[in-house]
Amino acid sequence: MDDDLNMSIRKFLKQVGVTSQQAIEEALRAEGVDPSKALQIKVVMTIEDLGVEHVVTGEIKGKQA
């Protein structure tokens, strides 16, 4: 893979990670969610020009009391 393309992908994914974490933290604060409560999460990445839809699901939670 081309080095410039690889770096562009990495830069985009870093931006996704940072902004996604900020959005999650903001939503948790706004809703006053118990940090020990497990939350189901799903991320959908779409690349329309390539016909790609990639889904990642998981769970986020803090320390259990």
What's the structural blueprint in terms of helices and strands?
Blueprint: H1 3-31, E1 39-47, E2 52-60
Antiparallel strand pairs: 1-2
Q: What do these coordinates show?
A:
With 65 residues, this protein is of the alpha+beta class. The protein is 45% helix and 28% strand. It contains 1 helix and 2 strands, in the order H-E-E. A two-stranded antiparallel sheet has the order 1-2. Strand 1 and strand 2 (52-60) form a beta hairpin. The radius of gyration is 15 Å and the shape is elongated. It starts with a helix and ends in a 5-residue tail after the last strand. The relative contact order is 0.14. The model has no long low-confidence stretch (mean pLDDT 93).
List keywords for this structure.
1 helix; single chain; elongated; alpha+beta; two-stranded antiparallel ribbon; 65 residues
For the biggest β-sheet, the strand order reads 1-2
Strand content: 25-35%
Distance N to C terminus:
47 Å
- Total number of helical segments? 1
Principal-axis shape equals elongated
Number of strands: 2
Proportion of helical residues = 40-55%
Describe the structure concisely for a colleague.
The chain has one helix at residues 3-31, and strands at residues 39-47, 52-60. By secondary structure, it is α+β, with helices and mostly antiparallel strands.
